[in-house]
Design brief:
Strand content: 15-25%
Order of helices and strands: EEHHEHHHHEEHHEEEE
CATH class of the largest domain: Mainly Alpha
Number of domains: 2
Largest sheet: 4 strands, antiparallel
CATH architecture of the largest domain: Orthogonal Bundle
Radius of gyration: 20 Å
Length: 176
């Protein structure tokens, strides 16, 4: 991604394509060439973007805000919220009406919607594949957010973790 006025480029690097020494050297040469043209390159890992998206966004916004006068920042439009299909809008309305099924220590954290509840909220569909497409639409539109947990690695370090299958939970996003 590029912000031309601020001359900021955002690169998202995966371990698969940017993890070895050859790729790192190529990225460094590219960053140096862009720097000579007056650009700042913000490199985020795929893991940062997926596991801690708010922190990744904050980092990008910080760099852009440092490079733009405040008058320019005031003109940046708010993020547009894409319209939802009828089914996705119906599922979101049902989730908002029903509230989360997970309600505390015995069932899990307060305010989380288990994946089964989210799938079950999709109106008019009974098979999982089409319901999953509607849930993916809600995630892509930023209306629901998967809950990222923390777990200890074998070395004792805590790291972000996105559970799969029936353990996946969601939160409703705050959309203006």
């Amino acid at each position: 991604m590029v912000h031309r006025k601020a001359r900021v480029i955002v690169e998202v690097d995966s371990q698969a394509h940017h993890g070895d020494e050859v790729a790192k050297a190529r990225d460094a040469r590219r960053d140096a060439a862009l720097h000579r043209l007056g650009y700042v390159v913000v490199r985020l890992s795929w893991r940062q973007v997926v596991m801690t998206p708010d922190e990744a966004l904050d980092e990008v916004v910080q760099v852009i805000s440092e490079r733009l006068p405040s008058a320019e920042l005031a003109r940046i439009p708010p993020m547009l919220v894409p319209p939802l299909s009828e089914r996705a809008a119906g599922a979101l309305a049902r989730l908002q009406q029903d509230g989360p099924q997970v309600d505390g220590p015995a069932g899990g954290p307060l305010g989380h919607y288990p994946v089964g509840q989210v799938l079950g909220a999709v109106p008019g569909l009974t098979s999982d594949r089409p319901r999953r497409r509607v849930v993916a639409e809600l995630v892509d539109a930023g209306r629901i957010v998967p809950v990222v947990e923390r777990r200890k690695t074998p070395g004792g370090r805590e790291e972000p973790y996105l559970p799969g299958g029936k353990h996946l939970r969601f939160e409703l996003a705050q959309v203006a």
